[in-house]
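Throughout our pipeline, every protein is held as a single compact record rather than as scattered files. The remainder of this section carries one protein's record, kept here as part of the documentation.

===
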Amino acid sequence: MYSVEKAEKALRKCLKWRLDNKIDGILEENFEDLHKNLVYYIDGRDNSGRVVLTIPCNLCSMKDAFEAGNKDRLMRFFRQMIEHAAAQIRSECLQNPGSPSTIACVIDFDGVDMTKSTPEGEPNQIQ
């Protein structure tokens, strides 16, 4: 069952998080230094019409960012990536009402040797 009170609480929590983390201005931030080692594409639609966000892991390396002590900057980069996809969805929905308002995220491990251990200094997960 849906609860208006729970929905309002969740929305307010989300808006506070966006404000606290300055998400509304994140698309203007420059992450050229990270784009050299972290690649993603927002390049089309899936069969359901959703925006496709593709992350080709064989072209990505977080090691340099972590070794440079840029964990916070790296997290902002990922948040910007999601905001880019969200902006694409908003644009699509405005141009074509009824378009899907979700994304399909493809994390492509093709060419990645999963048998190797995680390099020292590069965590195997980001919290």
